Amino acid sequence: MTGSLPAPGVDVAAARRLVRIGLRLSGLGLAALAGVYVLAIRFTPTEASQGLAQKIFYLHVPAAWTALLIFSLVGIVSALYLWLHDPRLDLFASASAEVGVMFSAVMLTTGPIWAKPIWGTWWQWEPRLTLTLFLFFLYVGYLSLRSAVHDPAERARFSAVVAILGLVLVPFVHLSVYLWRTIHPMPIVLKPSAPSLPPEMLRTLLIGFAATLLFYWGLVTVRYGLGLVTRAREAEAMRNA
Amino acid sequence: MGDAIGLALAIAAKDIRAELRSRTAILSALVFAALVLVVLNFSRDPTRLSSADLAPSALWITFAFAAMTALNRAFTTERENAALDGLLLAPVPREALYLGKLLANLAFVGVIEAVSLPLFIVFFNVSMGGALPGVLAVAALGTVGFVAVGTVFSAMAVRTRFAELMLPVLLLPFMLPPLIGAVQVTAALLEGRPLSAVGGWLRLLAVYDVVFVTLCTLIFPAVVNE
Amino acid sequence: MPENGGYMAAAYGLTAAIYVGYWLRLRARARRDTALPPSSPAP
C-alpha cells in the first residue's frame, strides 16, 4: 500500500513545500479579502432600503457558495475514492472538509446577523438559512466521524460514505423547506439580493468570491501538505515498530 | 435475486428474534411515547391549542425517537455477540445484509408505531375518519426515510468509541426531509383533507425513500468490506 | 436609509476574526508540524 508513495525523506520535503506554498497563497487570499472589505465599504454604493447591513451580502454570499462548493467537492472526491481507492483522494477530502467547516461557520454567523435588521428576527426556517444550518451539521458530522475512527482505511471509507450521502441530501433539504414555505410564506417579503444587481455590486460580489476561493485554495494546500506529513510520519513509525 | 431476498429475510428474522428476547428497547420507546403524550397535553392551554392540533407533531416526535432507539439497540446485540463479524465471514452478498438489517429495524419501529398510534388517537382526541389508510401510508414512507440511512450509520457508529453519540450526530440532518413531509401530510390527513391535497409532499417522500434506499444498498458494502 | 451599521460592523468584525484567527492557528500548526527534527548528536 505504501509502495505508491516515494520514500519518507522525499515525502516530507515535498509536503513541506506544499505547506509553504499554501501559506503564501492563503496569506495572499487574506490580503485579497482585506481588499474586498475596503471595496465593499468604501467603493460600492449602499442599498437604500436595507442600509449598511446589506453590505454583509459581500461576505456572506461568497462564504456560502464556497462552503457549498467545498462540500460538493468532498462528496465527489469521496465517491472517486470509493471507486479508485487512492489515499490522496481521501487526504484531499479531509483537508477540504477541515477548511469547509470554517466557511460554513462564517456563513452561519453572518446569515443571522444580516437577517436581524432585514427580517426582524435572527432566524427564519426558510430554504437558504435552513440549508446553512444543515450544511454545518453535515460538516461537523463528517469531521466527528473522522476523529472517531482510528484505522486510516476504515476512516477513509466511512467518511466517504457520509460525504456522499450528505451531498445527495442537500437538494432534499432545500426542496423540503422550499415546499414548506410555499404553504407558510415568510411574513416579510424583502429579498436580500435583488434580482437585478447593479454592476458595481455584482463586481464587488465576484471579486469577493474570487478572493474567498483563493483563500480556500491556499488553506486546503496547507492542510493537504500537513496531512502528507502526518501520513509520512505514521508510515515511518510503522516501519520502525 | 430470489436468493438475496430470502437471505435478507433470514437476516431480518434473526435480528428480530434477538430483539424480542430482550424487551428493553421497545419498553423505553413506549415510555417515551407516554411521556410525550402527557407533557404535551398538560403543558398547553386547552382553550387556545386543541390537542388535535398537537397530535401530528407529537406522533412524529415519538416515531422519530422510536427509530433512533431501534437503530441504537443494534449496538448492544452487535457488540456483545460480534454477530456482524460472523455474518461477514459467510459469503453473504452485502446488499442482502443491508436489506435484512433494514427490514429488521423497520419491523422493530413498526411495532412501536403500531402501539403508539392508538394511544395518540385516544389521548389526543383525534378523529381518524377515513384517514387511517393515509396515515399508515405516510407512517411507512417517513419511517423508511429515517431507517434507510440510519441502518448504514448504525453499522459505522458501532465501530466507534461513542457510538450512541455518533449515530444521532450523523443522522440528524437526514431526518429532516422525511420529518417535514410526514408531519405535513399527517396534519392534512387528520384535518380531513384528501391525499391528493398533499401530493407534492407524498412525491417528495417517495422520491427520498427510493433514492436513499437504493443509494444505501449500493454503498453499504463500503462500510462492511475491508 | 435605516441605521443598521452596527450589524455590518459585527458581521465584518466576526468574519475577519474567524478568517484571520483560523489562518494564524493553521500557520502555527504548520510551523510545529514541519519543523525539522534536531540533528542527532555525533556518536
Number of separate helices of chain A: 6
Helical coverage of chain A, percent range: over 70%
Q: Which sequence of SSEs, written as H and E, runs from N to C of chain A?
A: HHHHHH
Give start-end ranges of low-pLDDT stretches of chain B: none
Strand content of chain A: under 5%
The profile of the biggest β sheet of chain A is: none
Shape of chain A: flat
Can you tell me the number of structural domains of chain B? 1
First and last CA, distance of chain A: 17 Å
**SSE succession of chain B:** HHHHHHHH
Report the average pLDDT across residues of chain B: 83
The 3D shape of chain B can be described as globular
Please outline the major beta sheet of chain B. Answer: none
Q: Which stretches of chain A of 5+ consecutive residues score pLDDT under 50? A: 1-10
Helical residue percent band of chain B: over 70%
Structural class of chain B: mainly alpha
Structure description:
The complex is a heterotrimer of chains A (241), B (226) and C (43). Chain A starts with 7 loop residues before the first helix and ends with a helix. Chain A has two domains: 1-45 and 209-241; 57-187, no CATH class. Chain A has six helices and no strands. In chain A, 80% of the residues lie in helices and 0% in strands. With 226 residues, chain B is mostly helical. Chain B has one domain (2-224). Chain B starts with a helix and ends with a helix. The model of chain B has no long low-confidence stretch (mean pLDDT 83). Chain C has one domain (1-32). The longest helix of chain C is centred in the middle third of the chain and has 30 residues, at 5-34. Chain C is rod-shaped and about 60 Å long.
